Amino acid sequence: MGTGAVNDRFPMQLERMTASTSACQCDAGNGGTREPGDDVVMHESAMVAERFERFRAPETAHRGAALSAGNIEAHLRLETHRIEKGLSIAEPRRPFGRLAQERLTSLLALAAELSGKDDGLVTAEEQAREALRALQRWNSADTGVRDPDLTQPALLTPDEASSRKRDVLTEFFAQRSSVRSFDPEKPVSPEAIAHAVTVALHSPSVCNRASGRAHFYQERAAIDPLLDLQQGNRGLTGIRNLAVVTVELSMFAGVKELTQPWIDGGLFLMNLVWGFQSQGIGSCLLNWSMPDAASRELRKVAAIAESELIVCMLAFGYAQEGTYVTRSAKPPLAHVMTLH
Questions:
Q1: CA-CA to 177 of 20 to 30 Å: which in 3, 72, 100, 232?
Q2: Given this model, what pLDDT does residue 297 score?
């Protein structure tokens, strides 16, 4: 699977993105220069911003606002997190959380009016109700009672982080390498995939909104068209399992979160890789640095919702016996670490 299909389908976008003509004078007349492809960078950035603006939630949710089910879920999770975060600090105030309580009550009323709700919204509603009960118990109690459903003691202390555990984890992380030759005769079970996604769900995300999504394909008829849209998989063999990792844009609110989807999506993707590695399943990240036209085509071919931002593809599976991986030497520690 080379890049021929991409070049055939998106010749103008790719030609402009890789233009090598000399720099031209900036139209603004400020003496600066514009690099080849600057117009394309601006266009592609505008496309990302337009999609974000189309699907994001408003910064504040109120009755009468144009809110999708995803937007309501996003705000339910945001306000629930305000309460659980407030209960997790060293000395929570009593009372606290009046605004969060009012917002959650209003959001639950909005959610109650919806029909055909998905599991994500239903779960967010349940968690919001529990947060309201926990807040009421805290604010009405004579002595501090931290709700065990919302908070728990820190699980890792310096004593528990023994050198042995540290060394085991360090070795686990250091052993990750991209696998480029997979055994096509060893299928990855749905249970193994579910375990990896469970690990990915523990990724940190802004206000616990859990926006990461993963789409899985295990049939060649479905995989080949997706690989044809991606650049960089030439030379990989035996791919029988492919994931497309995305982020649900309706889970974000306000312009200030424009770049947050990439952060949350990257964290989700990395934990998905760890989830596979913990089971002896290798993987190779296939970057999606493609024009908006290619992303639109991928959504169509892969049956991915318009509200999801494409983050990356991930080939995964059991390594072919005798497979080699790169050593990929890293830069010196002093080159990347600065102690201020």
A1: 3
A2: 96
Exposed, middle or buried: residue 319 (CB in 10 Å: 0-12, 13-18, 19+)?
A: buried
Given a contact cutoff of 8 angstroms between Cβ atoms, the answer to whether 214 and 244 are in contact is yes
Measured between alpha carbons, how far is 134 from 127 in angstroms, rounded to an integer? Answer: 10
Mean pLDDT for 277-282 is: 97
DSSP 181: B
Q: Cβ distance 253 to 52 under 8 Å?
A: no
Q: Tell me the two tokens of residue 267.
A: 């964290």
Question: Residue 27: is its pLDDT beyond 50?
Answer: no
Tokens standing for residue 229? 């849209």
Residue whose token pair is 């959001």: 107
- Domain locations in the chain as residue ranges: 44-140, 163-317
Tell me the H-state helices in 24-112.
38-55, 69-88, 98-112
Residue 72 has a pLDDT of 93
Which CATH number does the domain 163-317 belong to among 3.90.226.10, 2.60.120.10, 3.40.109.10, 1.10.3720.10? 3.40.109.10
pLDDT at 45: 85
SS3 state at 286:
strand
Residues of the chain above pLDDT 70, percent: 84
